[in-house]
């Protein structure tokens, strides 16, 4: 449980600032060789490794160098020295971050155990003895400064120098070069975010030019947004049109198929028409007779019966003229028979 708590504190709590002397070990500080340190000796204390620098615009290259320094030996206590603004401006040049900002940046690196403020530009034996430093870690490229071709030359000669590898493609100078190269872009961006021209050290004419360029960029962005929306709308319309045309074609094929099924050469409608035509022709050629046992037709109640014919014995009655020769002869015979009866 205590180990887990210790690890948690190591990852969450910032590194301490170095005191007048930061070594709490009461045992005599024995000088170690690199071979001894790599074997994990001495067992009563960690190996104290010192790494120094400016650490302006703290970046991944700085962090990787400190990670290498921390992992040089099985048990390493890493002290990081940060030079002040006064020394840095004197020997190297102006910094972007102040010394206090650089101190705080180093404190929150997970590989750092202790931060030493206002570190010396050149490491003296007295300084190394005061802070009980076993080894100094830095990249192996000769660092010429303060009138010396390599400020770590005497450390290397003493066998206390352990090299680390630089990370290619990233450095403070590279970052500053990017800013200088794209100065107009960053100036316009900060003006847009509310910084004044005075704060950015931008002239009145450049300020107006940058603001005009920002307006043009905003207009271009609006036009680009409208174009994207228009393209999306046209694509949706084309997609919908394609779906409608496809559905129309399917319905058309279905309609044509149904039409041919009904009215085509072998369609249902032709068969029905032929059957009905044959049935009507058969009715016309052989009409059906009425059955013999059909009931007599009754007179309609609206039609009155015809009056009875007068009796034949009436003398004043005249027979109706015959409609045919047979009828005429029949009538003549009946008249002669009547005369005979009267006689």
UniProtKB/TrEMBL annotation:
Residues 327-336 have a biased composition (Low complexity). It holds the Pfam family CTP_transf_like. One of its GO terms (molecular function) is phosphatidylcholine binding. Keywords: Lipid biosynthesis, Lipid metabolism, Nucleotidyltransferase, Phospholipid biosynthesis, Phospholipid metabolism, Transferase. Residues 50-178 form the Cytidyltransferase-like domain. InterPro entries: CCT, Cyt_trans-like, Pcy1-like, Rossmann-like_a/b/a_fold. Its EC number is 2.7.7.15. Belongs to the cytidylyltransferase family. This is choline-phosphate cytidylyltransferase.
